[in-house]
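Comment thread on ticket #2218

A.B. wrote:
> Attaching the input chain for the structure job we discussed in standup.
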Amino acid sequence: MSDIETFEIIRYTADVVAVTPGGDVLLIERDWPPYQGAWALPGGHVDPGETSRAAAARELAEETGVPVMPADLRQIGTFDAPGRDPRGRYVTVAYLATVPADTPIVAGDDARTAAWWPLTSLPPLAFDHADILRAITTR
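C.D. wrote:
> Ran it. Output below, let me know if you need it in another format.
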């Protein structure tokens, strides 16, 4: 090993699994690469000075118009597998939010559209978001 160590750049993100009591999950259709046009969980980068919980609530509101208080988000887990994002090493903390079935949604920020999907009939998902959803459905 050389005297100079190599450090991997790691980006920090937060994702939200917003579900209704009836079993629908809120997904966004991505408007930007990577995975442009693919369905994904709402989420994004944690800003400097921000917790992942606060970032999750902010990203959910920015991408879908759904307001939640950070304190109402329950942590699902941390997802950090190498290769989970084609842009490089990304570590995300995923959160669960339960919202009323009649919650209005409006796509915004980097979401082309937002829609409720039955957990039993999901489209192919970007990144490792199917793994994140499996983490809540196998509990």
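A.B. wrote:
> Thanks. Noting for the ticket: The radius of gyration is 15 Å.
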